[in-house]
Write a structure and sequence with these properties.
By secondary structure, this protein is mainly α. It has a single domain, classed as 3 helical TM bundles of succinate and fumarate reductases (Up-down Bundle), CATH 1.20.1300.10. The protein is built from four helices and no strands. α1 packs across α3 and α3 runs antiparallel to α4. The longest helix is centred in the first third of the chain and has 29 residues. The termini are far apart. It comes from Beutenbergia cavernae (strain ATCC BAA-8 / DSM 12333 / CCUG 43141 / JCM 11478 / NBRC 16432 / NCIMB 13614 / HKI 0122). One of its GO terms (molecular function) is metal ion binding. InterPro entries: SQR/QFR_C/D (IPR034804), SuccDH_FuR_B_TM-su (IPR000701). Keywords: Heme, Iron, Membrane, Metal-binding, Transmembrane, Transmembrane helix.
């Protein structure tokens, strides 16, 4: 097929051939996921902002003890975990689409998507570990360094 680089414009009535073959309807499901996760993320993020900034003393009250008290509840752990996972999957899927659209060489596309997936895995694993292993009252810590709700 002739391209513009050859000095010839391709036939506009020619059958379109896809550059990337994706099995089944994976791109359709990715598109649907982006819409659904976007709506859910709006609820999660505005709920997060409302609780952290408007309820209580506002932004001035956010400190180590606030986060420790919040993550003592399984509800807020799951809330923040959902927000982390959905935001990371949503963003990774969006960047994957941009890479597929703009990376012209296959090697470039593979390298960029590999780096993207590596960054996704590292961020999600570390974020999940922080949410579920966070201990605001570590044993053996100096009493003056602990939040007020910890017993020394």
């Amino acid at each position: 097929m002739a391209t513009i680089d050859d000095g010839v414009i391709a036939n506009p009535r020619a059958r379109y051939t896809r550059r990337l073959r994706t099995p089944g309807n994976s791109e359709l499901w990715a598109w649907i996921f982006m819409r659904a996760s976007g709506v859910l993320l709006i609820v999660l993020i505005f709920g997060h902002l409302f609780v952290n900034l408007l309820v209580g003393d506002g932004v001035g009250a956010i400190d180590f003890a606030f986060v420790g008290g919040k993550w003592a509840s399984p509800f807020w752990q799951v809330w923040d975990l959902l927000m982390l996972w959905l935001a990371m999957i949503h963003g990774t899927n969006g960047v994957r689409t941009i890479i597929n659209d703009y990376a012209e060489r296959d090697v470039t596309r593979v390298v960029l998507k590999s780096l993207l997936y590596l960054a996704f895995v590292v961020t999600v694993v570390l974020g999940t570990l922080v949410i579920f292993t966070f201990d605001p009252c570590p044993t053996g810590a100096a009493a003056h360094l602990l939040p007020s709700f910890c017993t020394a």
